[in-house]
Specification:
alpha/beta, Rossmann fold, 290 residues, binds S-adenosylmethionine, 2 domains
């Protein structure tokens, strides 16, 4: 099951109060939403976005009794559209908790994890995204693959890894996450705790799901729909997400927004011990001008 990260810190900075409205841009299993809900009842509402239709289906039963959470199976790049359609107003805060959930890695069977032997799919929303990791790995040109590994994964050994992929796929299609992880392991021996396939898997997932482009668009829309003095709290897990957040926040500051976190907020030692996935999390908070 997915453990939400930096929950106490998000609550502290978003400071939810009775009857206020919030947006959860990345619902997952609703860890952050459920905590926010405790403070905003009885009349406050959370408009939640979750792009993965299977995850929305899994959440449906739990949410039947919960009238204060409106869960939409939609990309957070549709925030403005859906806020308008629902006439959802007086939004005091938005939480973004980026990436995928532990459920995606452990249970979705879509090849997100290099520790599993599953078909290389990696689409967060298989109904909306047409291209799978299988197609990228097996049919994209050498140059394009190197570019993806560098630009979406900051993989320094992109060329060597892609050469090995091309050597392999000449004889047989690379079908599963395990096959791909093994090809990379043969090129880059494990030197520390980090698996050598980490960056390649990150690059493929980020590229296929258009994650960096979505992030820029979603953040800007979230800021536009916020009430005066409303806040955005955003949790990132990798350097390329950080770059996008810093770039957008810089633009927003020029429009008068105020940084609430002077330095990024990181999980405590205890949280990292209890939930190792949280170790790379960084929280930043920005406030709209009044
Ligand atoms: C780290 S998880 C969020 C976990 C959640 N905070 C919780 O406590 O359960 C990120 C979630 O965002 C979803 N997601 C990723 N990109 C999205 C997008 N562009 N729009 C909406 N949801 C997205 C993923 O499917 C995943 O479930």
């Amino acid at each position: 099951m997915h453990k939400p990260v930096l929950v106490k810190e998000v609550i502290k900075f978003l400071n939810p109060q009775r009857n206020q409205n919030f947006i959860d841009a990345t619902y997952g299993f609703g860890g952050h939403s459920k905590e926010l809900l405790k403070y905003i009842k009885p009349k406050g509402k959370i408009l939640a976005f979750e792009w993965d239709p299977f995850l929305v289906e899994l959440n449906k039963k739990n949410l039947m009794q919960e009238k204060n959470i409106i869960l939409k199976n939609a990309n957070f790049t549709k925030i403005k559209k859906i806020v308008k359609e629902l006439n959802f107003t007086k939004i005091k805060g938005v939480i973004f908790d980026l990436g995928i959930s532990s459920w995606h890695l452990e249970n979705s069977k879509r090849g997100f994890s290099f520790n599993k032997d599953e078909f290389l799919d990696m689409r967060i929303n298989p109904k909306e995204i047409k291209i799978t990791a299988f197609e990228v790995v097996n049919y994209y040109s050498k140059e394009r693959l190197i570019e993806i590994l560098k630009n979406y994964g900051e993989e320094k050994r992109a060329k060597e890894i892609v050469d090995a992929i091309l050597d392999k796929r000449r004889f047989k299609k690379i079908e599963t996450s395990k096959e791909l992880a093994e090809i990379i392991m043969n090129v880059c021996k494990r030197k520390n705790k980090i698996h050598p396939a980490t960056k390649t898997f990150m690059a493929l997932r980020t590229f296929i799901n258009n994650e960096l482009e979505n992030l820029e668009e979603g953040l800007k829309q979230a800021f536009d729909v916020l009430d005066k003095n409303g806040r955005i709290a955003i949790i990132t897990f990798q350097g390329l997400e950080d770059k996008v957040v810093k770039k957008v926040f810089k633009e927003l500051k020029r429009k008068g927004a105020k940084m609430i976190t002077k330095n990024v907020v990181r999980p405590s030692r205890n949280e990292i011990l209890e939930n190792p996935r949280s170790r790379s999390a960084k929280l930043r908070v920005i406030q709209k001008n009044g």
